[in-house]
Amino acid sequence: MLRDTNQIQVQAISRAGRERDIQEMRSELKSDYRIGHMLPWDEIGGTEIATLRIAQGVKSHGFENVMFCRESAPPPLEFFREANFETATYDVEYPDLRYLRGFLYRVRQLARELKQRRIDLVHCADVSMSGVAIAAAKFAQIPVMSHVRNRHLLLNPRDRRFLGFVNKFIFVSQNTWKEFPYKVPPRRGVVVYDGIEAPSPQELTVNSFNTNREVRREFGISDEAKIIGMVARIGEQKDYLTLAKAAQRVVGLEPQVRFLIVGSYSQSDSQREYYAKVRQMLAAHNVEPFFIFTDYRKDVKRLMSAFDIFVLSTHFEGLPLVILEAMAARLPIVATDVDGVPEIVLDGKNGLLHKHEDDSQLAALLLSLLRDEAHAKMLGEAGQRFVRDKFSRERFISNTANVYRSLLGLSNAEAELTDLKKG
User: Fold this and answer.
1) Among 47, 39, 51, 50, which residue's Cα sits nearest to residue 132?
2) pLDDT(86) > 90
3) CA distance linking residue 86 with residue 67, whole number of Å
């Protein structure tokens, strides 16, 4: 009996010691590490949406977030403010040695802002136009990382100089890393696949019928029509010419089809100009009446619930989050076989791939799904299982938070805390 009592006392003392160790280690760790996200674009697109999802997710891992947007970019500023994130502005300027004095002034100005806002780590949301942000982080002696979200065929010498200061590159796909025209060794690079929270089949079934009818009424689409949907802002990256040619073939055989394009076309002059070109393409192929454009929408998931088929006709993609979202919504996928797309769309298993700029093949795949609902359903269900098993939101956020910890020198401390808790 005395021996049992002694063992209990020893265990209690051991537990108390471990708790003291944990508390002491926690007190040595800063509790409010702040990430400065550098947004390079004037519009809201995949980069901005992905950055928002990262910031929302890593909050639960102890990271605060500040969104740095271009001074000339009201839409992204409002986008992040509406999501209740702290925002700041900075002057993005392409590094040009002919205007070195102005460039250095902006670098120092941003470095001061980083210090004033107590930024511990700079995260460039895209490698493009990151010169000022990378240089400012270096000037402020703050670690810097950069996402690489798309194919980059060429990098001039000035870009390469700044990339040498990046502590870590996050690539959205294996292909994006492989094709990046700047050698990134394993110690400086990592692939972090995006992730999405997939609704249960029951949730989709309960909400889909009424929402489908509401969306159809909103856009004047009959109940008999099949909806082929694409979610993408109207920009040159997307291959609307191939889609127009394919649509001409499709509607010639299935005239009840409608193409619903969800994405911004009015946020900037460049978008409006390209949107006019797209309408001309569609008119030239006699399919303009079959296309409906929504402009920027906040209810993308709601609109997608009315799709019968999801299509992504594109020239290049790193790893399109929108395909994962469509898979999570149990939609059959038809996408262009470029870059990182085949890393998530396994042809014939959870979706279908067509060759780049092959409108004949694209049309044939769309028609096959329109005419074979059982096959379309099978692909949609396989895609949802694939996302749930391989591309969960929890895995994506945890992997991103671990990259933050490694750059801030927290990996060992976090591991020791975990070991103490387990012990």
Assistant:
1) 39
2) yes
3) 6
- State the pLDDT at residue 30: 60
Report residue 177 as tokens. 């890393």
Find where tokens 């900075």 sit. 90
Q: Which residues contact 366 (CB under 8 A, 6 or more apart)?
A: 228, 246, 250, 309, 311, 334
* pLDDT value at 17 more than 90: no
> Is residue 47 a contact partner of residue 125, using CB atoms and an 8 Å limit?
yes
Q: Report residue 60 CA to chain centroid gap.
A: 19
Are 39 and 73 in contact, with CB atoms under 8 Å apart? yes
Closest-CA residue to 393 (of 196, 225, 245): 196
Distances (CA, A) of 17 to 25, 49, 103, 423: 12, 45, 54, 11
User: Is the full-model pTM beyond 0.90?
Assistant: no
User: What tokens does 219 get?
Assistant: 């856009």
> What is the structure's pLDDT at 42?
86
**DSSP calls for 88-114:** EEE------GGGHHHHHHHHHHHHHHH
Task: Report pLDDT digits (tens) over 243-272.
Answer: 999 999 999 999 999 999 999 999 888 889
For residues 176 and 350, what is the distance between their CA atoms, to the nearest angstrom?
22
Strand partners, 258: 227
- Reported as a single tens digit per residue, the pLDDT across 366-421 is 999 999 999 999 999 999 999 999 999 999 999 999 999 999 998 654 544 434 33
Smallest CA-to-CA distance from 261 within 286, 243, 273, 277 is with: 243
416 CB contacts (<8 Å, ≥6 apart)? 25
CA distance 309 to 376: 8
- CB distance 223 to 420 below 8 Å: no
Partners of residue 146 on adjacent β-strands: 124, 169
| Cβ(289)–Cβ(220) below 8 Å | no
